[in-house]
Design goal:
The protein is an alpha/beta fold. Helix content is about 55%, strand content about 5%. The protein is built from 21 helices and five strands. The protein has helices at about 5-10, 10-20, 35-50, 55-80, 100-110, 120-125, 140-145, 150-155, 160, 170-175, 185-190, 190-200, 205-220, 240-245, 255-270, 280-305, 320-325, 325-335, 340-355, 375-380, 380-390, and strands at about 90-95, 115, 225-230, 250-255, 310-315. It has a five-stranded parallel β-sheet with strand order 2-3-1-4-5. The model has no long low-confidence stretch (mean pLDDT about 95).
């Protein structure tokens, strides 16, 4: 195999061998299933993703990264068995449909010095486990930051929708990549067969077992009072999240689904354009609208039948958050019974002031550009709209 072919190969053995080389020769991926879901996403990438040469390189790089990281998590845990003794207590999860304010909310909550959010750099380069004394000076921060200029050059509009940086908070949907069970891949690449499996057959118990190990890993040498976590992908595994974390604190975000679907279709089309010359915006919208309607109904079913007495939920409406961000933060703390220190309030207020809406440019999108019929979408999401009394935006 030539160097060019090896750099774009989506063969499973090539991926695993490269991951092993990058991890210093490690070969133990741990006990939970990993290679089967990896094989599924690789097959879908090869057969359905319509990747160009750059796309094949990007896809391979992501699969190698997650495989390498899994090797490193496993090795660190074997080397330091005391990691498994870490207790994850009352973690906070921000959950909701895409484009409902979850990213900026997570970034604001992460300013509380008593809270811990997964940082992008530690998720990209998790080994060795981060340490409190070097958390803001670790050389991996610069190593991670160096990966972002290419994205800015290839899709400069991306930062208007989803700012990126080594020292910004990262989503759990990225951490799920180490299990190869994550909706992230179908956002970045066109892999419908793989996503069908994620939607209907994948075992999210494995996802949350490994997620718990990841939090223990990050917390071991860098603890704080509570975890602040975020991703809409938690809707896919809400039942298993609650089993793994029965004392979870959940902020469930709500917005007119027409706006949510249109914004997410716009984001997905933009991200996929990095690696494909054949991106169908209307197909993306139609595909994700039905997937998200399915998973949202599942999450509402779980909420109605499986919320433990230890768990707490706060309903956050996007319109309220836009009107007064800090007021919503105060309500979240009160509802979830979290004490807010003066230093936390000051830090969050300062962050809000420094990050006004549109700081990185405006994200413009129209439903008609994606073949979205607002009336049809609202009919499809009628159960959700009625349950949370959501008015059209």
């Amino acid at each position: 195999m030539s160097n060019i072919e090896s750099a774009t190969s989506l063969e499973i053995d090539s991926i695993l061998n490269q991951a092993s080389d990058d991890a210093g020769g490690l070969t133990d991926f741990g006990q939970l299933p990993f290679k089967e879901p990896l094989a599924k996403v690789l097959a879908s990438l090869e057969e359905e993703a319509r990747l160009n040469e750059i796309g094949r390189y990007i896809a391979r790089d992501r699969m190698v990264m997650h495989s390498r990281n899994r090797l490193l998590y496993t090795a660190d845990r074997q080397r330091h068995p005391e990691i498994s003794e870490e207790k994850i207590v009352k973690p906070v999860f921000i959950i909701g449909l895409p484009r409902t304010g979850t990213t900026i909310l997570h970034d604001i909550l992460g300013q509380d010095p008593d809270s811990r959010v997964p940082m992008t750099w530690e998720c990209m380069f998790p080994s060795p486990p981060p340490r409190r004394e070097t958390f803001t000076s670790d050389p991996r921060i610069a190593q991670c930051q160096a990966t972002f200029p290419d994205v800015d050059q290839m899709i400069p509009a991306f930062k208007t929708m989803h700012p990126m940086g080594a020292e910004l908070s990262q989503e759990c949907v990225t951490l799920m990549g180490e299990t190869m069970i994550t909706p992230l891949f179908h956002n970045q690449f066109r892999v419908p067969s793989y996503q069908n499996w994620v939607d209907h057959q994948a075992d999210f118990a494995d996802v949350y077992a490994f997620h718990h190990q990841q939090l223990q890993h990050f917390q071991w040498q860098c603890p704080s009072d509570r975890w602040m976590l975020k991703t809409g992908a938690h809707m896919w595994g809400l039942e298993h999240l609650l089993k793994q974390y029965p004392d979870a604190r959940i902020v469930f975000t709500h917005r007119d689904p027409v706006k949510s679907m249109t914004s997410y279709a716009s984001l997905t089309a933009l991200v996929r354009s990095m690696g494909s010359d054949d991106v169908d915006r209307e197909e993306i919208a139609a595909d994700w609208i039905h997937r998200l309607q399915h998973v949202l109904n599942y999450a509402m079913d779980v909420r109605e039948t499986q919320i433990s007495s230890e768990a707490k939920i706060y309903e956050m409406y996007f319109s309220d958050f836009v009107d007064d961000q800090f007021s919503e933060i105060e309500k979240i703390y009160e509802s979830l019974e979290i004490e807010m220190s003066g230093s936390a309030a000051d830090a969050m207020r300062e962050f809000i002031a420094d990050n006004p809406k549109g700081k990185h440019g405006e994200h413009s999108y129209q439903a008609a550009d994606y073949g979205i019929n607002p009336t049809a979408v609202r009919a499809l999401f009628s159960r959700y709209i009625e349950r949370f009394n959501l008015a059209p935006e």
